[in-house]
């Protein structure tokens, strides 16, 4: 595999690099990208800001390949991309991986809305012991295999049965 | 497994749920959490905002369990958590998964700095065809198994050999 050469490791180490945004990118199986975008709108109220389709795939295939859709959610841009052969993401071992934590004042309603849209709730709402944002935490798994923690910023949990 | 009951699916579907933040949480093997935090500071200039340790593990184990460290990066909070038995994340299949895209004006320097800190560059810098933020894209894999896309917002790529 080709590697980018580090031409000047010393200088690079000291360089001040400014980042202007962090955008989680959810890579899903290509034919499911369109559905995934609709799901995130419905489950979390994400707003579609733009969608880039593969130029060659548009014409000759039934389902256009979504290279990247930009979804706005709580001031963050989340990217949803159809998986292509070249964009293979790493296989994580069980127990490790990237999950997305959504902060809200109303965890119970947010979990219920996500479940109504097709996510699966995992476990009960629990008081976070520091594992997430510190407050009440609910967990849902979406139909595309991603886990979302839905948590409140403060130490308050609605009465969950 | 216990499931959160959807008591009133209809109402939930219509509920307006406001999210105040999206925080990517990187779950790493518990003994590596401290190293991972240092790596993200060194590689990306993340700033540690806070760290919550497991109260019971602090006293009787050599390495305290990091329940959650909050790292500030480009206005976003990234959480780094040590994996506990209860916090199992899903195993993703090859090609799909969550990657984090970092936007910067200087992709080349950012990739070089990450590599100097211990990340592995994957492939050359390429002009994005829409797969990410639309500009120049570099890809690095960090020592904890996470893939980061480092991309410029506009269509400009430094001369990469």
TrEMBL record, chains A, B:
<dbReference type="InterPro" id="IPR029068">
    <property type="entry name" value="Glyas_Bleomycin-R_OHBP_Dase"/>
</dbReference>
<dbReference type="InterPro" id="IPR037523">
    <property type="entry name" value="VOC_core"/>
</dbReference>
<dbReference type="Pfam" id="PF22656">
    <property type="entry name" value="At5g48480-like_N"/>
</dbReference>
<dbReference type="Pfam" id="PF22650">
    <property type="entry name" value="At5g48480-like_C"/>
</dbReference>
<protein>
    <recommendedName>
        <fullName>VOC domain-containing protein</fullName>
    </recommendedName>
</protein>
<feature type="domain" description="VOC">
    <location>
        <begin position="22"/>
        <end position="153"/>
    </location>
</feature>
<dbReference type="InterPro" id="IPR054576">
    <property type="entry name" value="At5g48480-like_N"/>
</dbReference>
<dbReference type="InterPro" id="IPR054575">
    <property type="entry name" value="At5g48480-like_C"/>
</dbReference>
